[in-house]
Amino acid sequence: MIEIRQLSKRYPGKGKTEGLLALDRIDLHIEAGEIYGIIGHSGAGKSTLLRTMNLLERPTEGSIQVAGIELTQLNKKELQQQRSKIGMIFQHFNLLSSATVYDNIAFPLQLVNTPKHKVDAKVNELIRLVGLEAHRDKYPAQLSGGQKQRVGIARALANDPKVLLCDEATSALDPQTTQSILSLLLQINKQFGITIVLITHEMHVIQTICDRVAVIHGGRIVEQGKVVDVFLKPSHAVTQEFIMEENHLGDLSSWVSFKNGQGVHSRIMKIHYLGEVTYEPILHRVLSAAGIEFAILQGTISRMKDVPYGQLIIRMDGKEEALRHAAVALAEQGLEVEVLA
Ligand SMILES: Nc1ncnc2c1ncn2[C@@H]1O[C@H](COP(=O)(O)OP(=O)(O)OP(=O)(O)O)[C@@H](O)[C@H]1O
């Protein structure tokens, strides 16, 4: 659906200075119907990259195709036409403050001269979709952040886009509202098959709704793949940082001091569960059979999109050989096992 090849963007500098290379030879392939996340720290180039996907930002070099059409080759009118197939939502919603919920959503339809009765039918359908029936005549100032973003989403869907670009769409929202907006995006993706591209600096957003993820750092894609794979085996230091922040692992050295003597050793392990094994008592079964005692130091059970996912940090105490065998046995039962200390 979106094919980006060797895309670079240099912002011009003052006078004879070189300017800033915000995107550096980006290659990205986004499939139709998937939810694709781009994560990076502030200044990494996320917004610039997202905005090239509807040419709000024109790249300095490279190619960008959406649904097989090369955007950089289009004239103004053709580009306008293509843009109507690419919806966008924003961190600060960008609503018209002097227009009601109804009029904000109707605006993009009126721009392309849609007949009044069709505008009415479409706006009513969208208001129902985003659950704002009770607020149709209110102005943005009378709405909560989550409600404003629902208006933003409805407006972005008005012209039946194939792609929805989300620019930090939940960053201004509290955790509960974030979750409800992410659920709405997921529903829209499933119901209409719209390809969603989102940028964020929060790993939990990626974990909650994305199929695949790219990590951007210094204008380059440093890692990309299925969310599950990247989450379980992050290869780049920046990705590892994001996951650490998400899991609040902190400093492990204090946990290592539990190590004791007299033939009993301690080991700190990180264990990931993925899929149905998350709900099975594998840990208890394997470790008690091996005569190993364990203490849970930290743990979370959540979901990675639709897949159950758990992570535990445990300290195992037992004979050296038993510890070694247990690590292998846990891996054989389908758990991802990593020795931390
Ligand atoms: N219009 C501009 N002119 C000059 N430099 C710019 C412009 N817009 C962005 N930049 C610079 O390009 C780099 C990438 O910016 P961008 O906004 O894409 O990053 P980001 O990852 O979205 O950051 P944030 O999360 O803080 O929004 C930054 O160094 C930024 O200062």
From TrEMBL:
For this protein, the record's CDD domains field holds: ABC_MetN_methionine_transporter
Please cite one Gene Ontology biological process associated with this protein. amino acid transport
Q: Which Pfam families match?
A: ABC_tran (PF00005), NIL (PF09383)
* Keyword annotations: Amino-acid transport, ATP-binding, Cell membrane, Membrane, Nucleotide-binding, Translocase, Transport
Annotated Gene Ontology cellular components are:
plasma membrane
Superkingdom in the source lineage? Bacteria
Q: Which family does it belong to?
A: Belongs to the ABC transporter superfamily.
Q: Report what the protein is called.
A: D-methionine transport system ATP-binding protein
Organism the protein comes from? Paenibacillus aquistagni
